[in-house]
Amino acid sequence: MLEKTKGIVLHYLKFGESSIIANMFTDTLGRKSFMIKGVRGRKTKLKANQVQPLFILDIEFYHKENQDLQLIREFSPAISFNDFPYNVKKSAQAMFMAEVLHKSLRQEETDTALFDFLENSIEYFDLHTTGSANFHLLFLIKLTRFLGILPLKNHSEANRIFDIREGTFNAAVPFHFQFLDTQSAEILSKMLDMNYEEGSKIRFSHQERNHLLDEIVRFYSYHHYNLLNLKSYSILKELFV
Q1: Long-range Cβ contact pairs of 57-60 (< 8 A, separation 24 or more)
Q2: Residue 148: which of 216, 212, 220, 95 has the closest Cα?
Q3: Which of 35, 59, 66, 85, CA to CA, is 20 to 30 A from 76?
């Protein structure tokens, strides 16, 4: 049966001589894998360069229940991006965020709130051409809400240590090494309530930004979303000096 939906590209790989398999998070079916035939040929109507990490597509596909792989009949860009696909730094951020989503989004069910968050975040990321150096940090922090690992917002003068295992701010250093020091914990606490515009105004040194990224990745990885082996991780950390 032919169906239409909107999908955010998380990952893709080449298949055969001219096809690709794209993994997407859709607005109606959650996470799904799609076969797109004949997109790598010279004379094809559909082009593989339109299927890139974080691209948002309108797709028409043959939906078969209980099938792991769905076949796309037609697709087109749902949004025409003007900045991030052509900006080296933002392209690295997009690759990193897509890899995070590919590792962490597992549900094959509708999640409209999550899809709307992703779509709105990606649109904002593209439209704002300056002040994007912290975007991936705030994106990961905001994503924790949808993954069910949102830290408890209980930071105070007394609770200044963040326990990674418990996801809470505590008064005492825990009896393990999975925690953020007072400086990193305070930054995390502030960013929990920030929007993207506010986050863009924070001034980090290269070392400070990478340290916070390391700590967020450590938090994700402890809570069963292993981000330590992402291909884009080391590239991203080198770019924002």
Answers
A1: 57/6, 57/7, 57/8, 57/9, 57/24, 58/4, 58/6, 59/4, 59/5, 59/6, 59/7, 59/24, 59/26, 59/34, 60/2, 60/3, 60/4
A2: 220
A3: 66
d(CA 136, CA 48): 25
Written as one letter, the residue type at 80 is S
- For the record, the structure tokens of 25 come out as 């998070």
d(CA 138, CA 36): 33
Q: Tokens in use for 216?
A: 């967020």
**47 token code pair:** 């082009």
- Is 233 within 8 Å of 96 (Cβ atoms)? yes
Tokens 């990952």, located at residue? 11
Q: How many CB atoms lie within 10 A of CB 23?
A: 19
Q: What is the spatial distance between Cα 135 and Cα 146, in angstroms, rounded to a whole number? A: 17
Predicted confidence at residue 46, as pLDDT, reads 57
Q: How far apart are CA 239 and CA 46, in angstroms?
A: 33
- The most distant pair of C-alpha atoms in the chain lies apart, rounded to whole Å, by 65
DSSP β-ladder status, 30-36 and 56-62: unpaired
